[in-house]
Amino acid sequence: MPLLAVLRSVSPSAEAQADIACRGLRVPDPDTLTLFYQPIKSTTGGFECVEALARFRDDTGALAGPASFAPALDTDAHARLLGVRVMEAAFAQAEAWHLDGLDIRVCMNVSPRYLNDDSFIADLDAALGRHPDILPGRIEFEITETAPIPSLERAEESLQECITRGIRVAIDDFGAGSASLSYLQRLSTHTVKIDQKFVSRMIDFPKDMAIVAGIITAGRMLGIDIVAEGVETTDQESLLSTMGVSHLQGFLYAKPMPSIEVEKRIRDCQRTESRRMKPASINLVDTIVAGHVHRTNLFIKTFNDRGFLPDHLLDVTEVDNCHLGRWLKSDGARHFSCQPVFDDIQVLHEALHRLAREAKLCMVGGRTGKARALIRVFEETNVALVSRIESLPAGTRQ
Ligand code: G
Ligand code: MN
């Protein structure tokens, strides 16, 4: 659908406009919307993404962010009106950069209210249709957890639709809302962005540092990206990299800026050798292996004691999604892929899932004897796997 037709169809109704007016709320003029972009740095290299940030220009030419219009924007009509415009502008920019050979992901904020709107997925498809050269993997939707999500079920469905289309999903301002952990547990997400409040206070206050360390650890165990927002000092940078954060965003690197400037900044950074930070010195291997041993023991014990193999454990389709698998393909690979034993670990881990799968099929087919034999091989394979993980270099194990 052409953009003008979409925009005409999303104009707030007369009632919505009257309601906003009588509550005395300030409404931004959508025609003055402009996007600024703030680069996000990867700890393994240069700028990997930019966050698109909405700004509105007033009569004097001054720019205001959406925060100054927050109550008005938190209405269905205005959330969609702004959402459609931001999506259009950011998609057009992402497509232009892609066609221009700039390899960068564009992240944008999507209000929970718009995510819950019945039109959201149709608007998304229309926008993707208007920009056929976009690579969906270069788009990330940031869902803030500070604004309440009207219906978590509806939001889950919408986010799943985005993921099906190859678009990435981030939880923004993580820790600042009241439902952080349930969002992390319920929603499929590629990225978690730690709220800048914790980052700015973590050197002075132990609780903030513990919270930051906890979020980073969760991200490393899940194999998802963790962005620290609001990084302003090199002390914060150094501490975050010791804890193993994967991405950094803040005034230390760049302020939000117009697209033309951010593009120059990223190209300059790609030309100069960008600094690779040292990998995390806090390692998670002991936690990961302890969890894995509990899971495999339970698998074997359930078979021996009760004669069946639990479905949720060690299915072959789970090889990249189990506790050990997620870590092996992300944080584990980052730290240990240079170790000769690492390949062995991956092969044994895959074998373990295959054996579990075969044993389950035998049980279903009534071939209990064969299943028992496979479980014995499973146990031996697991002993070999665990001993190889434990042989990874001690200390920092890097
Ligand atoms: O919640 P969200 O992540 O979308 O917020 C991004 C906002 O944070 C932007 O408006 C941006 O200007 C601001 N911001 C980005 N980096 C920094 C920083 O290092 N310090 C502060 N105080 N604000 C920042
Ligand atoms: Mn954001």
Characterization of the model:
This protein has helices at 3-10, 14-22, 70-73, 76-99, 112-115, 120-130, 152-164, 180-186, 196-201, 206-222, 234-243, 259-271, 285-306, 323-336, 341-364, 368-390, and strands at residues 33-42, 47-57, 63-64, 105-110, 139-144, 168-174, 191-194, 225-228, 247-248, 257-258. By secondary structure, the chain is an alpha/beta fold. It has 2 domains: 3-271, TIM Barrel, CATH 3.20.20.450; 285-396, Aspartate receptor, ligand-binding domain (Four Helix Bundle (Hemerythrin (Met), subunit A)). It has an 8-stranded mixed barrel, surrounded by 5 helices. A hairpin with a 5-residue loop joins strand 2 and strand 3 (63-64). Helix 13 packs antiparallel against helix 16 (368-390). 36% of the residues are buried. The mean pLDDT is 89. It binds guanosine-5'-monophosphate and manganese (II) ion. Guanosine-5'-monophosphate is lined by residues 38, 53, 65, 109, 144, 172-173, 196, 229-232, 249-251, 256.
Write the layout of secondary structure elements.
Elements: H1 3-10, H2 14-22, E1 33-42, E2 47-57, E3 63-64, H3 70-73, H4 76-99, E4 105-110, H5 112-115, H6 120-130, E5 139-144, H7 152-164, E6 168-174, H8 180-186, E7 191-194, H9 196-201, H10 206-222, E8 225-228, H11 234-243, E9 247-248, E10 257-258, H12 259-271, H13 285-306, H14 323-336, H15 341-364, H16 368-390
Parallel strand pairs: 2-4, 4-5, 5-6, 6-7, 7-8, 8-9
Antiparallel strand pairs: 1-2, 1-9, 1-10, 2-3
Helix pairs in contact: 1-4, 4-6, 13-14, 13-16, 15-16
Bound molecules: guanosine-5'-monophosphate and manganese (II) ion.
Guanosine-5'-monophosphate (G) is lined by residues 38, 53, 65, 109, 144, 172-173, 196, 229-232, 249-251, 256.
